[in-house]
Amino acid sequence: MRFEVRFTEPAKRDLDRLFEYLLERAETIEDLDAAQLVIHDLSNAITHQLARTPFSFRKAGRSSLRRELIVPSGKTGYVALFDIEPPSTVLVLAIRHQLEEDYD
Question: Is residue 88 part of a domain?
């Protein structure tokens, strides 16, 4: 079974915010290309992993349907908070860098 993965507007804004953060620190053309690749890979990893196995990721909170996906990137990574909406939808609620304190 495959799940439909949808990003909420706040999650889309999180991707934009993370991209802007990487762009602000870019010093070379290669850094700009790398920033774009990181966000592209992050979005793809979230979509592909949650479409196949959303129940295999760690629970986040009291509901067994709210979970977190960790996506490695370089020496750290990102965390995507999502809800599973039966029977076949996953709703990405927020995305943050692992070093951030919490979701915005």
Answer: yes
Give the residue from 70, 20, 16 showing the smallest Cα distance to 46: 70
28-61: pLDDT as tens digits? 999 999 999 999 999 999 999 999 999 999 999 9
Residue 53, domain extent = 4-97
Please list, in sequence order, all residues whose beta carbon lies within 8 angstroms of the beta carbon of residue 102, skipping any fewer than 6 positions away: 96
Alpha helices, DSSP H, located in 1-104: 9-25, 29-52
Q: Is the residue at 102 inside a domain?
A: no
Q: What CATH number corresponds to the domain at position 34? A: 3.30.2310.20
For the whole model, what pTM was predicted?
A: 0.93
Residues in the chain: 104
Question: From CA 22, how far away is CA 80, in angstroms rounded?
Answer: 18
